[in-house]
Amino acid sequence: MAKYRKKSPLVDAVPYHLGLEDGWMPPYLTYDQGGLLHEVPYIDTKEGRFPISQGDWIVTDREGNRRVVKAHLFHELYELAEDDAAA
User: Fold this and answer.
1) Contact status, residue 64 vs residue 74, Cβ threshold 8 Å
2) Is residue 83 within 8 Å of 60, Cβ to Cβ?
3) Which of these, 17, 52, 65, 81, has the minimum number of CB atoms within 10 Å of its CB?
4) Which segments of 1-87 are extended strands (E)?
5) How many percent of the chain have pLDDT more than 70?
6) Are 68 and 58 in contact, with CB atoms under 8 Å apart?
7) Contacts 24+ apart (CB under 8 A), 18-25
8) Which residues pair with 24 in a beta bridge?
9) SS3 label, residue 71
10) Tens digit of pLDDT for each residue in 18-50?
C-alpha cells in the first residue's frame, strides 16, 4: 500500500475497490439506469457507517481511524510521500 502525505503526518491510503468494504447498507439514493435501488457498500468510521463508491479513497491515520475521501479532494489534499514509497 502506498504512503501519502497530507502536508503533515503520513497516512495509509488506497483507492476503493470491491472487497475493501465492511458491508453493504440498504439503498442509499443510488439508482441504476432502470430506476431500481441497490445496496451500497460502506466502511465503518469513528463517525459511523459511511457509504463508499468507485473512485473514493480509504484513508487510515496513525491511530487506525479510517475515513472516505472523494477522489478530487484526495488529490488536492494528499501527495505521495516519495521517500516512503519504496518502504
Assistant:
1) no
2) no
3) 17
4) 3-5, 10-15, 23-25, 40-45, 48-51, 57-60, 66-69, 79-80
5) 78
6) yes
7) 20/52, 20/58, 21/52, 22/49, 23/49, 25/49, 25/51
8) 41
9) helix
10) 999 999 987 655 556 666 677 889 999 999 999
For residue 87, pLDDT beyond 70: no
Residue 21, all three cell numbers: 468494504
The label of the residue with cell 479513497 reads: 57
The residue whose grid cell reads 510521500 is 81
Residue 26, C-alpha cell as written in the block = 440498504
Q: Give the DSSP H/E element, type plus range, for residue 76.
A: helix 71-77
**What is the value of pTM for the model shown?**
0.72
Mean pLDDT of the chain: 84
